[in-house]
Design a protein that fits this description.
The protein is mainly α and 268 residues long. It is 73% helix and 0% strand. It has twelve helices and no strands.
Length: 268
């Protein structure tokens, strides 16, 4: 996911952040539809409505995320964005160990963020908007994964719908269409940052409760920090490094819980 984000940052000089996010959505929709070819049942009724809502919320989260990383370091944005999963995990917590894990993760994420509001207030606003959308992604994603049929098919339909809904953002992609290399990179961002991780999310969400899933997502700020260091030369501070250890500790504490009984895969 964050290897794709690092590539996206390189495209910001040729397209707007929102335009790059739309290209990501388009690339993901094309690849997912070609791969899954959802049947007629997936295009009707409640299942279609849920898929569209999920796709639009997820694509909106990506737009807000890209606007944020255009203004703030990648690791900082992901840490702030993680407020959404932390809230989902907190509302789903039942035991003292759950609460301790969420607190430890929240403290770690706060240390990683090390936000300077004076640096880019707009970046902070976009990151917080992405956090709210991420919470929506988890809640809707669990419903999609648990619904009848394939969650990945619904993912394909959702991104197709989101590509149409957010099509005005394509105005910011003009220069990309004149370069096959940049267009290929845009599609690559869709595959790396959407097709692979979100399809895996659907597999995991069928087997875990949304609260436990939300805590496991705490590994993402760690990954983002590593990618920011390796690919973008964004060196973490000591508080960020300590925050990373706190996040890993919180995930380990929460992961000791008994696993939720897997949801059976649909026949066929």
């Amino acid at each position: 996911m964050y290897a794709g984000a690092a590539i996206a940052v390189g495209l910001f000089g040729h397209a707007t952040p929102a335009g790059v996010a739309w290209l990501r959505c388009l690339g993901a929709a094309v690849v997912l539809l070609a791969w899954r070819r959802p049947g007629r049942a997936a295009w009707r009724g409640r299942r279609l409505a849920l898929a569209i809502a999920f796709g639009v919320v997820t694509a909106g989260m990506n737009v807000l995320f890209y606007e944020a990383i255009a203004r703030l370091p990648l690791g900082t944005v992901v840490a702030m964005e993680f407020i959404g999963p932390v809230l989902v995990a907190a509302f789903g917590s039942r035991s003292l160990r759950d609460v301790l894990a969420v607190v430890l993760v929240a403290c770690g994420v706060g240390a990683i963020a090390d936000v300077q509001l004076a640096g880019s207030l707009a970046g902070v606003v976009f990151a917080l908007g992405a956090a709210a959308a991420w919470a929506g992604y988890i809640v809707l994603g669990k419903r999609v994964a648990s619904s009848e049929g394939s969650g990945i098919d619904s993912l394909a339909i959702g991104f197709a719908a989101a590509t149409v809904v957010l099509s005005p953002l394509a105005v910011g992609t003009g220069e990309v269409w004149s370069s096959p290399r940049m267009l290929l990179l845009g599609v690559g961002v869709g595959v790396l940052s959407t097709v692979v991780p979100y399809a895996l999310d659907q597999v995991v969400l069928r087997r875990l409760g949304q609260a436990r899933f939300a805590v496991l997502l705490a590994l993402l700020p760690v990954t983002a920090g590593v990618m920011g260091f390796v690919l973008l030369a964004q060196v973490p501070s000591w508080p960020e490094a300590l925050g990373t250890l706190a996040v890993v500790g919180g995930v380990a504490l929460r992961s000791r819980d008994e696993a939720v009984r897997p949801v059976p895969e649909p026949p066929g």
